[in-house]
Design a protein that fits this description.
alpha/beta; globular; six-stranded parallel β-sheet; Rossmann fold
């Protein structure tokens, strides 16, 4: 099936420029944000109650519905090549690591414990993605994905958004949609074409 027919059949957006790169790693690699993607947001318009609450409240903050289950399904599809990539300071880094341990994330999903990456600025997620040749990335902020546009072929803007998503990423409202859209990308003829 041609890419054009696959797009129509699966309602995919046009193949992004990054997907035509010459440095395609030959294997899919997934990157996932933590706050408001893995960790359930609070009631405030800010980040998560995980960040604004005390330590006990933070560790009790539940995961996003379906996140662990879907990631567990995706890990073997990506051959174990799955990273968490989060922008935060040292205090939230430590809290994030404790939260992942508290919710038994690694055993529940199969993501390796040494595949959790942090940075201090949002644009630095692009450095991690380049270093690890990330091909798919899930984040709740369009301003983060903007830095990955042209670098990461498949970008997924997660959760409710105040503005229409940019045309160079796919909007996914929940983890079921993440699973469906990622599966379509992995089943498409694009991967085979890029690996040539």
């Amino acid at each position: 099936m041609t890419r054009r027919r696959a797009n129509r059949a699966n309602k995919l957006p046009p193949l992004p420029p990054a997907a035509r790169r010459n440095d395609w790693p030959g294997e899919p690699r997934l990157g996932v944000d933590i706050g408001r993607v893995l960790i359930f947001p609070g009631d405030s318009p800010g980040d998560t109650s995980f960040i604004s609450g005390n330590e006990e409240q933070a560790l009790l903050t539940p995961p996003m519905p379906g996140a662990f289950e879907v990631i567990k399904e995706l890990v073997p599809l990506f051959g174990g090549r799955v990273w968490l990539v989060s922008k935060c300071g040292p205090k939230v880094q430590q809290r994030s690591l404790r939260w992942l341990a508290r919710w038994d994330f690694y055993a529940a999903t199969g993501v390796r414990q040494d595949r959790v990456l942090f940075c201090r600025e949002r644009h630095q997620k692009a450095d991690h993605c380049a270093r690890h040749s990330i091909t798919h990335f899930v984040d709740d902020r369009a301003d983060v994905l903007r830095h990955l546009n042209g670098l990461v072929p498949w970008l997924y803007l997660y959760g409710p958004q105040r503005h229409a998503p940019p045309p160079w990423c796919e909007h996914v409202e929940n983890w079921r949609q993440v699973r469906a859209r990622v599966r379509v990308s992995l089943a498409s003829d694009t991967l085979a074409a890029l690996a040539r």
